[in-house]
Amino acid sequence: MSPRYRHPSARKGTTIVTAPPSGAAGRSRRRSISRTTAVSLSVVGALVAGSVLAGCSQQRDPDVYTVLNSSTDESFHRWDAKTLATCSEQLGIQIEQQSVPAAQLKTKALRMASSKSLPDVLQLDASEVPQFAEAGGLTPLREAGVSDENVSRSTIDFGSYKGEWYGAARSVNTLALFYNKDILDQAGIEVPTTWDEMREAAKALTEGKRYGIALSAGGAEDGVFQFTPFMWSNGGDETDLGSKNVAEALDYWKSLLSDGSLSKSTVNWTQADVNDQFMAGNAAMMINGPWQLETLNTDKDLHYGIATIPVPKAGEDSVAPMGGAVLTVANTGESEREKTAAKIINCMTSEKEELTYAINSGMVPANENAAKAWRAKFPELSAIADQVETARSRTAKVGDRWPTISLALQSAFQQALTGKAGSEAALDAAQRRATSGE
Amino acid sequence: MSTTTSPAASVPTARTSVSATQPAARRTRGNKLAQWGFIAPAVAFMALFFGYPLVRNVVMSFQSYTPKTFFTGEAPFNGLDNWRTVFGDDLFGSALGHTLIFTVGSLAGQFGIGLALAVFFRRRFPLNGVLRSLILLPWLVPMVVSGVVWRRILDQDTGVLNSFLGLFGVGDATPWISSPSLALFSVIMVNIWIGIPFNMVILYGGLQEIPKELYEAAALDGASAWRTFRSITLPMLRPVITVVLVLGFMSTVKILDLILALTDGGPADSTQTLGTLTYQNSFVQLDFGAGAVVGNVLILISAVFAVFYLRANRSEGK
Q1: Which of A188, A182, A217 is nearest to A201 (CA)?
Q2: Which of residues 117-176 of B touch A (CB under 8 A)?
Q3: In chain A, what are the domains?
Q4: What is the ipTM of this complex?
Q5: Which family, according to UniProt (chain A) (predicted)?
Q6: Which residue of A has its CA nearest to B173?
Q7: pLDDT digit string (tens) for A34-72?
Q8: Dihedral of CA B157/B160/B161/B164: which sign?
Q9: pLDDT tens-digit profile of B226-244?
Q10: What is the pTM of this model?
Q11: Is residue B308 part of a domain?
Q12: C-beta of residue A72 within 8 angstroms of C-beta of residue A10
């Protein structure tokens, strides 16, 4: 659903579920019952025995600690395996990595909760933390013994719900403005820093089949993620979608469309599609995140630069959404295991492991010291690090109501962008929908 | 049937019947048990895999079933709250409408084209077999793959379809899936493309069952092609048509994967169906109670058509 840190192309699950052998059917047969009866009854017996055995198969292995994540992408799975091998050696325990596709992680974890087979460390998208914390599924990290040394205030907030810290981030990501250096140089256009400049630049860069800018206004979390920097930088807020500031942000998106600088297909695009358009040369600029770097770097002829997302007026703060996964300690009710889970998290978020992970994935380390080292190593990515510093999380204000608000918001901006309704009317309706359940 | 009434025959019959009363009764009981034994696996299977989920789903729609439930195992009953929430949402009405349009449109297209192709392939001509197997291809491609590929084909600027239309200088900027007024139509088109092979194969099979003599007789009588189709092919094919339409209905009304891959319910909820709505409620908002309500509505719609199907089958049998 929201592949901030994940590669949406990844589909292959790497968990192996082994089914228990179904019970052998009892073949005893009394003489008075005919042979056929016995056969038919034994089939029923086999069915029932099989299903009963399958029902009580899940058991937690006392010697093996499990980490459940969404690293189904080959490289991510390999990087995590390496980190876990280091931690396993350091702590003297056996750690198993289970990976399921990002979109299934939430429901998989819930199923595991109901069968009392939750993993020790559960990696969640930060926006999913409130739903799990509210359900009582997570153990507060400080209670379990996770260290918050050198972790910035905003990163703690990122993984917190109702003032309690539940999720430790290894790295965080955000959105930024990516631009094609060659195209901008050729047209003699400066990298835009304000909304007006971006609108002008996009108009000037639109030529033939090429659009000035690409962004995702898709009807899923991707689109909402991309709308937030425009909404927030303009002073808008998810608690009041009907406000003037949110409508202005939406009108700004509409102006890019009506100028013809943004493709009408934007309402169908995911962020991965936006990246494809940019790489194919169909867009001179795009809004996207650092998780695309690995793909972008596969094209050696593509020279791109990264800047912070333009703001309504010069000098204002560019507020982008903070995204990424966090490591949580699942509430298994076994405090000894939870303490060990905390140790695993401490190891995975240690300065060295974080830096390795961040260098591999192109995302910004959550640990402040590691972030400094990362900045020194990648000066060309400093815009992303800057953007992270002012970024905020989607769930900080609304908690577990975020999915409902997000659904209402995506419907609203799609209606406005496709001309089905005016910006204000659509957003007013969205606000009513978002608060109807209260 | 024997109607012998001679006393010589009746005496031994009477005697045997008296002496055989006990074993015969035991045998009948044994048979009864065997009969039930044979039905039992089917009953157990139905109860376990259909009955239980069905009942659970109905019960769940009256419960406050949230992520908390998975941890505590408690799902308090909340009466009609879920139903009120779902029916009070404007989205439910439009999703219901979209589902009906989608189902009727898809079935009409799939069936019409499938039948035409089936009749066409009845003739003998070179490469008939090869072409027939090629047409099966859409059926073999996983639905999600079709969805993703078609999303690229239908892209407004870079899609193959618009580039193709551009060659003729018409409609090269058609917003197939980026305009709310056209998206549902495009999704139906793609679903028709997917559904044609199934319809064609079943109907083609049905056509093979029609005796050749009927067509020969019609030809001798000088019946036109249209008349032959209307008076021989259609009536003889009716049982197969019922099966195709009912099965098609059931798989179309609950559509989810294709729409998720193609438009994700958008733009502006214009392709939101009951299937996507129940998915959104249950797996995005994690409000499983509300998801169950929409699921129940889907089950109800399918059940109504199942009844039609059974009735149609029964009247065929007579």
Answers
A1: A188
A2: 151, 155-158, 175
A3: 64-173+322-390 (3.40.190.10), 176-321+398-435 (3.40.190.10)
A4: 0.75
A5: Belongs to the bacterial solute-binding protein 1 family.
A6: A264
A7: 555 555 556 556 655 554 444 444 556 778 899 999 888
A8: positive
A9: 898 899 989 999 889 988 9
A10: 0.80
A11: no
A12: yes
